[in-house]
Design a protein that fits this description.
Number of strands: 19
Number of domains: 2
CATH class of the largest domain: Alpha Beta
Structural class: alpha/beta
Helix content: 25-40%
Oligomer: single chain
Largest sheet: 17 strands, mixed
């Protein structure tokens, strides 16, 4: 009921107002003026106001599908209407997304290995983990097992773990992660959960068991995963009311600890220690059959929820180029309440991502007040469900409200750390297209340098909302403030690390952090310059010749 009250009549009224006064100039101070030459002057007080509202306890952490997130979406749509943006959702500014939410019945998982007439019952969650099923409330799979190395098929890298092994009608057992010699960003694509499931299905498998590795234990120990066993899974629903990006052929699976996984390899032609020795020597182990059969089952509870994307459009001034769109995106959701007995259990998400959303809102306002608009149109997209797996962005990119082929570039704003005056920016993914030159030019116009990705091994290019646009062939960048500080006494890398270790996904990511509003102003100015440059340059951005992502998705 609250959603209909908030996002029904209110949005209808705003849509009418925006349509009646489209491209109107809102009242603004001289400080906020933006010239037609792109000399942007952001108003830090407005950025602060947006951020403090979106990160307020009232919104209860903006969890996907929650009342708090609905309030955030209403606020963003109201701001879009105030700026005179054209509503570009499916219902005014709103694009509602339906999701299936699945929770595991914690007492239900069962995993039995039968070998030579004897059985072993593995203990959940001590020895294995089983996430909820999005497809079946009562999921069961039984069958023989085949070890398939990492379970990756990457023809571009001359790698095929399924070569020479028969997994048709069987359950595959795959190592977590990817080979050490894979490039980080391409490797992140090939080793993603979705891709590994696809490779398994393409080869006829009916289930998938993933086992940890020594390297994986150093990065994310099995023990640390126990904190997330109550976390629901979500997927947006397609026109047939089925979860998107799912594989009905895979009936079940598990994630196994090192100790339990050893049992699966007993009696096989090679032990798990042999496999781990291959990894230590940087060899990719070949596949082989495992002895015995397994029976895996679990129960899940399903709910259907909705949560909105919010979309506003600034029409371009060029009769031809206005049919092309530069897309700004920022996620409005966060993770809601923390499971803690402490007094403060609200994950406010001030940096993640009230800050990025606030910068996008101020960028939209600056463009709306220009007397002469940029040549291309600009789309401002606030997406939901980022924390659930880039879901809102994926839905929008696959169900766009403008033709996907007309989106020439995406600039994504996610978790800018605005606590010190930075002297550079990082555009994750800029090296894959000629966006590199465009962003570099725009940054220079804001008296800021463009620095290369300082953590290429983390493959951050594949880990925020822009990647949903990449997978639809749109050249994209993920923008964050850089690690160079204008104050020599501040180590930007240390500040970033402290945020991750102290505040990331914790209730302390709130408005009590030491925000630097000059940094907020600079970051907004840089992003406005990027939008201005992309919207006015003669040629639309292109993938670099032979780039993996351009070749894979750009065609």
């Amino acid at each position: 009921m609250i959603k209909k009250l908030l996002l029904g009549s209110a949005i209808t009224a705003m849509t009418f107002a925006a349509s009646a006064h489209n491209h109107s100039t809102t009242e603004h101070s001289s400080k906020a003026h933006a010239s037609t030459e792109g000399a942007f002057s952001p108003d830090t007080q407005r950025i602060k106001s947006h951020l403090f509202f979106l990160a307020d306890d009232l919104l209860e952490g903006r969890d996907t599908g929650s009342r708090g997130h609905d309030i955030a979406a209403l606020y963003i749509a109201t701001e879009f209407a105030k700026y005179g943006l054209t509503p570009a959702g499916t219902d005014g500014f709103i694009q509602d997304v339906s999701f299936r939410k699945a929770n595991l019945v914690q007492e239900s998982p069962q995993f039995t290995l039968t070998k030579n007439g004897s059985t072993v019952d593995f203990a959940y969650p001590k020895q294995y983990l089983a996430g909820p099923s999005l497809l079946n409330v009562d999921a069961k799979v039984s069958g023989e097992m085949v070890f398939v190395g990492y379970g990756i098929v990457a023809d571009e890298l001359s790698h095929n773990d399924y070569e020479g092994v028969d997994v048709d009608g069987k359950i595959v057992v795959a190592l977590a992660g990817k080979p050490s010699d894979f490039p980080s960003e391409e490797g992140a694509h090939f080793a993603s959960g979705y891709q590994k499931q696809k490779y398994a299905v393409d080869n006829g498998a009916i289930g998938m068991i993933t086992i940890t590795t020594p390297k994986n234990e150093k990065v994310r120990p099995y023990q640390s995963r126990l904190s997330y066993i109550h976390t629901p899974r979500m997927a947006w629903l397609n026109d047939d009311n089925e979860p998107a990006n799912s594989f009905p052929q895979l009936k079940g699976g598990a994630y196994m600890s090192e100790g339990a996984a050893r049992t699966l390899f007993e009696g096989a032609e090679r032990s798990l220690d042999d496999v781990y020795a291959d990894l230590e020597a940087d060899k990719v182990p070949k596949g082989f059959a495992l002895q015995g059969t397994v029976d895996i089952s679990k129960k899940s509870v399903h709910d259907t929820i909705t949560s909105p994307n919010v979309v506003g459009m600034l029409e371009g001034s060029d009769p031809k180029l206005k049919d092309e769109y530069v897309v700004f995106s920022a996620h409005s959701d966060h993770i809601g309440f923390a499971k803690t007995v402490k007094k403060d259990n609200i994950n406010n998400g001030a940096m993640d991502n009230a800050s990025g959303t606030s910068v996008m809102l101020e960028t939209a306002r600056l463009f709306s007040e220009m007397s002469e608009k940029p040549k291309r149109s600009i789309l401002f997209v606030s997406v939901t469900g980022e924390e659930k797996g880039l879901l809102g962005a994926d839905y929008f990119a696959r169900n766009p409200t403008v033709p996907v082929t007309s989106m020439v570039a995406n600039v994504n704003l996610d978790m800018p750390i605005l606590t010190y005056e930075f002297a550079d920016v990082i555009a994750f993914g800029a090296n894959h297209s000629d966006l590199q030159q465009s962003v570099e030019k725009a940054a220079a116009n804001a008296d800021i340098e463009l620095s290369p990705d300082p953590w290429p091994e983390q493959a951050l290019f594949t880990r925020s909302d822009h990647y949903a646009f990449v997978k639809q062939g749109v050249p994209s960048v993920f923008m964050v403030p850089g690690l160079k500080s204008k104050d020599p006494s501040v180590d930007g890398s240390k500040v970033f690390g402290q945020f991750l270790s102290t505040h990331y996904h914790k209730p302390s990511d709130d408005i009590n952090q030491p925000f630097n509003w000059k940094a907020a102003e600079t970051f907004t100015k840089v992003n406005a310059q990027i939008g201005w440059t992309l919207a006015n340059q003669e040629d639309k951005p292109q993938w670099n010749e032979g780039d993996f992502f351009g070749e894979t998705f750009g065609k």
